[in-house]
Amino acid sequence: ERLLGRLMDQGIESMEVLDVIRSTPRHIFLDEALSHRAYEDVALPIGHNQTISQPYIVARMTEAIISTGPVDKVLEIGTGCGYQTAIIAQLANSIYTVERIRPLLERAKKNLKLLGLRNIQYRHDDGSAGWKKSGPYDAIITTAAPQQIPKELLQQLAEGGRLVIPVGTESHQELRLITRHGDEFNSETLIAVRFVPLLKGQVQH
After folding, report:
1. What is the distance between the alpha carbons of residues 106 and 179, in angstroms, rounded to a whole number?
2. Would you please indicate which residues are annotated as catalytic (active-site) residues?
3. How many CA atoms lie within 13 A of 174 on its CB side?
């Protein structure tokens, strides 16, 4: 409840998002040594030089896609430990998630199975190319930052689809919401952020 209070203080308004965060046990996505910090509003390490995102960022990104249109089918780039996946899976009909680091993907599968979430398709691959075969998508969420937005992701958006993506270098990144209208893409900057870089062509077994 303290965490939810902080999220509301920072401007999260969607009760749908807040309710899902309330009911999702973040501690199961962390190593036992860090589980006592699960409900702090901070990013935490999950191994392989990756992090579980700060709850505020998860809430902000999720709110950005669900408050601007339908979320029947969602693509997530960067499964990580599966926490963001779990939040979206409870709000969308189906989610397709791509992770380039196999041990993280296997761990995420176990975490999400514990929660009984069955509307998730998994892929071990380079996320910068998206998942074309299963598109188009109502929304795409990217949890790693490219320096430039991959054209493949834009092309996999449905008409009216939204892409939420951090863009920039390690020293300066901003979270953008991009909406597709035909062949035009409207971009809105949301907040300054700091994510791990989106690495193209680097798949780890």
Report:
1. 32
2. 53
3. 8
Angle between helices 2-9 and 55-66 (to 10 degrees): 60
Question: The tokens of 137 are what?
Answer: 């998508």
Give the other-Cβ count within 10 Å of 177's Cβ.
Answer: 19
Q: What is the pLDDT of residue 202?
A: 66
* Token duo for residue 38: 């699960």
Q: Give CA separation, 77 vs 153, 164, 190, 196, in Å.
A: 10, 10, 19, 12
Contact yes or no for 35/25 (Cβ under 8 A): no
pLDDT score for 122: 97
pLDDT at position 201 is 60
Give mean pLDDT in consecutive 10-residue pieces for the chain, a chain of 205 residues: 94 96 95 92 91 94 90 96 97 96 96 96 93 96 93 96 94 94 95 86 66
Amino acid residing at 147: Q
In angstroms, the CA 29 to CA 25 distance is: 8
The pTM score is 0.94
Question: What does DSSP assign to residue 134?
Answer: G
